[in-house]
């Protein structure tokens, strides 16, 4: 899953499209090579948490990507959902600026443990 976000940093729009779940894609496949400017100037990526669900089919990554736009540092904060198809992870959809998961609530991965004792690594 992490490779998807490395792709953001590299500005590889085509890879992002290809790793997008076919049922959730919009638009046509971007041409190669995509230009790094397509996605702005990415500076840094931090993973808030990532989780491979116990069902083996779903995953979730929450990240903050920092980029520059008109000299201003911007933050894209997203919680992204993934599905595994034939051994590969595909992005399905995501939520922007998600509310923080409660440390004491059940972990989204389905382990039955509390988030703080499971996928929360912070
Ligand atoms: Zn978990």
From TrEMBL:
Gene3D superfamilies: 3.10.450.50. Residues 1-94 form the YchJ-like middle NTF2-like domain. InterPro entries: NTF2-like_dom_sf, SEC_C_motif, YchJ-like_M. Transmembrane segments: none annotated. Pfam families: SEC-C, YchJ_M-like. This is YchJ-like middle NTF2-like domain-containing protein. It comes from Agarivorans gilvus. The lineage of its organism: Bacteria, Pseudomonadati, Pseudomonadota, Gammaproteobacteria, Alteromonadales.
């Amino acid at each position: 899953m992490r490779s998807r976000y490395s792709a953001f940093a590299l500005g590889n729009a085509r890879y992002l499209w290809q790793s997008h779940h076919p049922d959730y894609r919009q638009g046509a496949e971007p041409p190669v090579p995509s230009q790094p400017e397509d996605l702005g100037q990415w500076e840094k990526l931090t993973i808030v948490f990532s989780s491979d669900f116990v069902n083996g089919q779903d995953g979730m990554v929450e990240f903050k990507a920092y980029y520059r736009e008109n000299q201003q540092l911007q933050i894209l904060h997203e919680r992204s959902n993934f599905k595994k198809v034939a051994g590969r992870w595909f992005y399905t959809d995501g939520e922007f600026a998600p509310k923080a998961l409660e440390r004491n609530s059940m972990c989204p991965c389905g382990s039955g443990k509390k988030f703080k004792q499971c996928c929360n690594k912070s």
